Amino acid sequence: MSVHSITPEDAARRLPDCQRILVIGCSGGGKSTLSLALCRRFGLPFLSMDRDFFWLPGWVKREKAEERALIAEAVAQQRWLMDGTGSSSMDLRLPRADLVIWVRMPRWLCLYGVFSRALRHRGGTRPEMAPGCLEQIPDREFLSYIWHFEKRFSPLILKALQHHAPDCPVLILKSRGETARLLDLISHPD
């Protein structure tokens, strides 16, 4: 399976004209950090799947029908950057995206990212999380999700990209260096 893959240089040229960007990938890979940097640089409204759609205060999961209605309303807006994977709503989000950035880091780096953010925000709420969802040390279920993400969820992402956005450009970032390269390119355009 293939997608319309582009380079960081190509993405940097396209980003100033993008109105709707989808940033996807495994937890702990750096999606939110990248998303917030892109929003600051291009003045895009930041939408977090976790904060705005998935979770209610106190780690209460929102009802699926309400979640989908909120996502449908959000993607209808003219400009946004949406941070989060949520494969069950790709049918709503991908057709509206001008660009997809897939943060596809190795699982060890995602695990490191999750543990370091848990320590950094422990007892508090991250900016991309719903109010009242206090950061915790990851449990076994969440660690298993990260460990198996590439095998279980990447094929679903590829299938969704091909089905719902076959012509949408996709930047795949596989290392912190590639992410840094993208941020450098948009910070210092030619």
Tell me about this structure.
Strands 1-8-7-2-6-3 form a six-stranded parallel sheet. It has a two-stranded antiparallel ribbon with strand order 4-5. Helix 6 (107-121) runs antiparallel to helix 7. The protein is 48% helix and 15% strand. It has a single domain, classed as Rossmann fold, CATH 3.40.50.300. By secondary structure, it is α/β, with parallel strands linked by helices. The chain has helices spanning 8-14, 31-42, 49-54, 64-75, 90-93, 107-121, 140-152, 154-164, 176-187; strands spanning 5-6, 20-25, 46-48, 55-56, 60-61, 80-83, 99-103, 170-173. Strand 4 and strand 5 form a beta hairpin. It is globular, with a radius of gyration of 16 Å. The N and C termini lie far apart (34 Å). The longest helix is centred in the middle third of the chain and has 15 residues, at 107-121.
